[in-house]
């Protein structure tokens, strides 16, 4: 097969015009400037393939095979593209035959086979597409009526569909459900009933096995009650009652040391009930002011101490910190030994420990 230079040039011009319409001109616009070689045939065939003109592309690839042989180049790429074009042509032919057969079944006029055209002719619009569209529209128009199985009448979509029904001569909702006599007997009396007021104390007595929980907590689930105000009040009273008299064997027999003020008391206490058991939880810290009266010389010593941790984990022993002596009067250094022995390391400290344990016992007995 021989392709003249003039016919190939015309083909190049047509391809460029068509490519500009579908925005793929950049793929083969170099044909205008390229020398006619097997590469030019390759670019032209690629452009025609992009335009779905497989028959024309096949013809160009055949010319490219001859040009490649003359140039001593490989023809494998051309052969591969020719096979693809041939496959596309066969698929288009099968599609056209299928469309023609469908048109004959529907009673439409089968599309006429388009005459052979030159490579420079524009692509004609497919008649098969129009035939398929007209057939589908015809089917849609024919499906205009639906048969009502209840009334054996035909009605269109524009007809009004009744959304109610008649029950015992009354118009009601279509979704109304009329109960049968058996269903009414099964359901029983569902009429509203007036609630009577129940005595809270009686209800608590009947429903609660533990009078230390709320009426609603019949299952004995977790319930916590804050007792911080009561705990602070009783703990303050217990600390203020702490007082110690020095024994006769001491350097100052008859001297009294006591707590004069609870400067601060911080913390909380609560009682939790869970599954019939009570848990007592408390945690406090306090700062106390003390005073010692020495009757022999009329001196008064003052100071302060702190208990940073007062809780259930202390196990009866409480740490005392920040022991300070603010005033010793005229006793001077002689009072220091007396205060260390009966305030810091014993005496008043032991009394305070006893008072804290008594309060913990009182709290756990509530």
UniProtKB/TrEMBL annotation:
Signal peptide: none annotated. Residues 224-364 form the Activator of Hsp90 ATPase AHSA1-like N-terminal domain. InterPro entries: Aha1, AHSA1-like_N. One of its GO terms (molecular function) is ATPase activator activity. One of its GO terms (cellular component) is cytosol. Gene3D superfamilies: Activator of Hsp90 ATPase Aha1, N-terminal domain (3.15.10.20). GO terms for biological process: protein folding. Residues 99-154 are annotated as: Disordered. Belongs to the AHA1 family. This is Activator of Hsp90 ATPase AHSA1-like N-terminal domain-containing protein.
């Amino acid at each position: 097969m021989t392709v003249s230079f003039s016919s190939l040039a015309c083909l190049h011009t047509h391809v460029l015009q068509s490519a500009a319409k579908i925005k793929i001109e950049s793929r083969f616009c170099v044909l205008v400037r390229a020398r006619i070689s097997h590469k030019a045939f390759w670019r032209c065939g690629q452009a025609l393939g992009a335009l779905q003109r497989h028959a024309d592309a096949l013809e160009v690839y055949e010319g490219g095979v001859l040009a490649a042989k003359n140039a001593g180049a490989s023809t494998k790429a051309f052969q591969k593209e020719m096979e693809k074009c041939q496959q596309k042509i066969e698929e288009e032919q099968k599609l056209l035959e299928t469309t023609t057969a469908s048109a004959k079944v529907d009673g439409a006029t089968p599309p006429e086979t388009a005459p052979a055209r030159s490579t420079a002719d524009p692509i004609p619009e497919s008649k098969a597409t129009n035939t398929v569209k007209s057939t589908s529209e015809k089917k849609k128009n024919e499906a205009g009526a639906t048969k009502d199985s209840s009334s054996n009448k035909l009605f269109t979509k524009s007809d009004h569909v009744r959304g109610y029904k008649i029950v015992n001569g009354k118009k009601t909702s279509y979704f109304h459900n009329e109960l049968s006599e058996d269903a009414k007997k099964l359901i029983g009396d569902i009429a509203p009933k007036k609630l009577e007021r129940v005595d809270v104390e009686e209800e608590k007595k009947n429903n609660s096995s533990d009078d230390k929980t709320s009426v609603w907590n019949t299952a004995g689930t977790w319930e916590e009650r804050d007792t911080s105000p009561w705990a602070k009040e009783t703990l303050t009273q217990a600390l203020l009652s702490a007082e110690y008299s020095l024994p006769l064997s001491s350097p100052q027999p008859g001297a009294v040391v006591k707590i004069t003020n609870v400067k601060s008391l911080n913390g909380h206490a609560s009682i939790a009930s869970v599954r019939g058991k009570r848990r007592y939880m408390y945690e406090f810290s306090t700062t106390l002011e003390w005073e010692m009266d020495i009757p022999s010389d009329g001196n008064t010593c003052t100071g302060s101490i702190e208990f940073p941790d007062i809780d259930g984990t202390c196990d009866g022993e409480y740490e005392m910190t920040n022991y300070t002596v603010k005033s010793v009067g005229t006793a001077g250094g002689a009072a220091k030994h007396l205060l260390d022995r009966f305030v810091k390391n014993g005496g008043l400290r032991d009394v305070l420990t006893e008072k804290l344990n008594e309060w913990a016992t009182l709290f756990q007995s509530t």
